[in-house]
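Why do we bother with holo predictions? Because pocket geometry can differ from the apo form. Keep that in mind while you read this record for magnesium ion.
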Amino acid sequence: MPDASASTPLLEQYEGVKARYPGHLVLFRVGDFYETFGDDARLLSRELDVVLTARSPDTHGARTPMAGVPHHAVETYLGRLVRKGYKVALCDQVEDARFAKGLVRREVTRVVTPGTVVEDRILGGPDHNFLASLVDTGHGAGAFAAVDITTGEWFHGLGDGPGADGLLSAIAPFQPREILWNAGSSEPRGAALLTATRREFPSARLEPAPGPVTAGELPPSFPSGALASPLIDEADRRLVAYLRSTQPRMLPHLTLVERGPGGRRLVLDSKTLRHLEIRRPMNPDDPKGTTLFDAWDETVTAAGRRTLSFWLTNPLADVASIVERQDAVQSLVDRGASLEEIRSALGRIADLARIASRVAGRRVRPPELGGLRDGLAASTAVRSLLAERPLPSRLRAVSASIDPPAALVDLLATALPETLPPTDDAGELFRVGHAPEVDRWRAEEAAALAELADLERAEQQSSGIKGLKVGYNQVFGYYFEVTKPHLARVPAHFRRRQTVAQAERFTSDVLEELERRIREAREGARSAEASRWEEFLAQVDRHVGEVYRLARAIGELDALATFAHLAQTRGYVRPTVDDSTVLLVRDGRHPVLDRGLGSAFVPNDVELDAASDRLLVLTGPNMSGKSTYMRQVGLLVVLAQAGSFVPAKFARVGVVTQLFTRMGFTDEIGRGKSSFMVEMTEVAEILRAADARSLVLLDEVGRGTSTFDGLAIAWATLRHLHDATQARSILATHYHQLTELVRGLSAARNAHLAVREGADGIVFLHRLVPGSTDRSYGIHVARLAGIPEGVLLEAERLLKQLESEGVGTGATGKGRGRGPRYTQAVLLAGSAAEPDPLREELSAIDLDHLSPVEAHRRLGELRAKARAPRDAGGAEE
Ligand code: ADP
Ligand code: MG
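The structure, written out:
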């Protein structure tokens, strides 16, 4: 059974490779295919929708599942696998099958992971592609380093942000595609929410094994030793070690990028990024167009798109740098129509950083170098357009960096022909005159071909056969062809080579010599061109760092020009950003909804001041616009601090350093935690970390539990924010009772979103008005939602009955029958002058040192106490 015994060594070889690359999908080259076997074959077949077959029976008669992809299309498939988060090892045949004794030797020639690819076809788009390493010191703190090897940008810092997920919040804005964390410790909490690809580091069997990294191996721009913290150093070194084993050529080009002066930026924790839908929609199935980024992305370059994305997820928190960015935007706005000239010149610039990365990784396609050449020329044009007017400081810096390295411009201009071939093995890579050796071989080839034409003519004449032709085929090379009727006149020095249907083919000494010369000339040209190409790429490679710098400047200019363009075309205004704690907006609009709703969107004001008027409590029925309003406030702050102009008549933003949101439900609910527990954990983190420079947006606090607990917590939270934290805060609540209490607080206000009651139902006006409302219009909303009429009529009847019994009008109607009246009495009593033990106990709680579990227990006690005197009968629970 020759077949079966042949399959076994192959599978053994495959298993051997699998064992050395744990966690990787091994694509194993067999002939013209990359194959996978066993479970991986099933997986590949499922993920890529390729046919699952079986390899012939092995010695035990078992058939092994097998699935593969054709080698010429492997990049496309790699792209799909990598975007799904798989790590792939490509195992190639490293000796010629014809000369192999026994099994062909195979080795892994490439490891492709989501965070280390540079090819466009694998990346699938121009967005940043970060690889991050985390050094987790426990409790969510530590250090991180993040690198995008497709643009050369490296960031690092401490993950000392707020709450228990500081480290995660620090890297969330990078949206890393791949995360490494320290071996031995468990996966950082929540990392799975950020990316599909995570691995422990060092992976024991990484090849070559990542040894210790010496300081000299860090890219040159890095602060050495004393400057950076040891933790950050560690995070950097891990990335270096990992890159050294996967992408050794990239290292020298990577540049450390500062995230703004002193690294100060607006901290958006990972939840806020999601809740505000800055870059990704809450619901991944949402149609495009729901995120802030989607509404703002009118960039015209790939670099600009990345910059805009980065700015919106990493807004600044430093007045001077925000104003500097605004000045740049303003000066572009002031250019009027000529702004569009700059944008259209920018639009001609290819993704230079990516091309540079592919040069560094030697995975560049020739036409991309044409793109680099043209992009450098277009950059020069952009720079001269900029120079037409005086530049504010930020634009001066940008303009200074848009400075294509002359040596590179020169090299590309003299070396490359106007259009380049699609691949680097088809010839015609260089202009005539650039590579003398290539030219010499090409001239030799042309001369030999000319002699061939002469030879054909000479043989025709001497033999008198008019139809004698020189031809060529792959197998026999050049030949003379003579058709059957003329065979008698074939000259004596012709030697027969082949017979075809209507003719005979011949060769001769002269023809063979010419053929040898032509072949030699072609091979000479090809190898001379290949080695010149390699040299040429090495020459271009020297400028990769400069191209990265240029590309960053192009990205910055494009992002600034986009802000200016939006301001011009959508009438946005420049917000006043200062060091106050004011947040004042006139006729502000929701940046995203406003785009969809147009004039149907109702603008609203914002008036907050941490010093005097810091807390706003929003009531109002479902669907009245509470959540929209709160998101709008958050998004306007993000935009203002990113340097953008904003959709409003007027805006003043005292710089916010931390933005916290707690909105609706988060993904963790599906993971077995109760919604109340999740909510309390989030609120606890906020109360612990927020300060007077924060903006806190809490939507429906206490909703995850029954009325009493929820109300008590909502009240205590509100008091803490008002008295202790003193952050600018907006709370939306169903608990109408809270609004009574707010009246007793010096720096808090009630407001609600207006509703008009008409003859045939109610109309949501979405207009913010002072004061509270106690109407929930729940039945109206239920009708809108399609609850059957019979059920609604019964509900209306019940509601009337409850109201006439004087049960009170809890905003949600969720309260148990006696709930609202009773609770109000307790809490109102608490706010009166006489001492109340319950209130005292509540205010003595030290929230800073209270774990969520403890909080829950304490609440239980408080509730029991609260109920005890009046529920003496103990009829309930
Ligand atoms: P709530 O949180 O009070 O239940 P939402 O904020 O979810 O209400 O708003 C419900 C809907 O009302 C939104 O989907 C939007 O279509 C509309 N809406 C909200 N605010 C406005 C506004 N200012 N102008 C126009 N429509 C609005
Ligand atoms: Mg809501």
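Residues 626-627, 699 surround magnesium ion (ligand 2) (CB under 6 Å).
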